Amino acid sequence: MRSPDDWLAILETVPDPEIPILNVVEMGIVRGVDCTEEALTIRITPTYMGCPAMDAIADDIRSTLSPLAEEESLSLAVELVYAPAWTTDWLDDTAKAKLEAYGIAPPGKTTDKRALSGDDPEVRCPKCKSTDTELVSLFGSTACKAHYRCRACAEPFDHFKCI
Amino acid sequence: MTRMDARFDYLLRLGDDALILGQQLGLWTGHGPVLEEDIALTNIGLDQIGQARAWLTLAGRAENADRDEDKLAYFRVQADFRNALLCERPNGHFGDTIVRQFLFDAYAVGLHEGLCRSTDDEIAAIARKSAKESAYHLRHSRAWMVRLGDGTEESHAKVQQSLNDLLPYVGDLFHSDACTQAAASEGWGVDPAGLREGWNTRLEDMLADSGLTRPETVPEQVGGREGRHTEQLSYLLAEMQVLPRTYPDAQW
User: DSSP class of residue B152?
Assistant: First the structure.
């Protein structure tokens, strides 16, 4: 009989389909694990309302957990919840370091309101670490990223939007 | 109007605005003036579709007639759509799309901010999520209003014309009726008329930075909230609904 923490540890083997360097727990997408004697319920929340990866994530979670849930004769449900709203503050320092090593500039703190409403926050180039960077477009390769360019080394890169 | 009717109607308005605008933005796929804008417009469209899904799911539950988000999106006729007329104005050229987006975003940020305080937990949860997205969209559409308005003579003239053409269609956004009065008095929705002041400030603020002006008098058209739509919506629905109506049992 697995505990909620055991299930969480298994969920840590499910990568985010668009940013596979992070798993769905590190991304803050998994919001809770409920386990009774009959049922296992995983609650997930979208990073963006229209994030097209959500269905893939729910499928990946189901296909990873269902054989294990069957072993314990548990029904499995993946539920979508909207509250509390996902925030990049749920990415911890380890996750942010992984993003940077992967070539994606990690988000700052949301207490830095510049990200949403006006001036650009300071964004560090994941390649040469210069902060002399410029915004190319507020929208990047996925819903959660913006497109930047480094003035120092000319590297184009994605910046994880801070929300 | 019963409480459930008002709730269904109100949620449809929220969902249909997002759905119709999102569908139109999706039409820019592969047609943006530059690659970054192609991606930006379709990303904004994606957010709108995501919001539409959440609102329409709630609307379906409020109606309690076994209609989910897909049934509501694909199997209603034009007269049953409750989107604001602004959202169904055609994409036109890039400037037309940006002006439409700015006028909507400047309204949506106030709307979502208000709905964050809804007494209904589900509405408040979707609003808190949407509020972050609409603030980001406004930042983008506002930046383009300033860039085009304060750009070349041609870009200024074009976007000024777009503004003159589209301003008459904002009426629905601020239109109060029995449905919105029920929503506001019971605390789960907001009174649209109360959103005009904030919208006006955002508009004036943008005008000051862009050098654009607003016409002295703007006759406003309403009707979308009651299902009185323009011709454009029928073409849009025909394209959006043709596949599920042709193959109603098809699964993705």
Answer: -
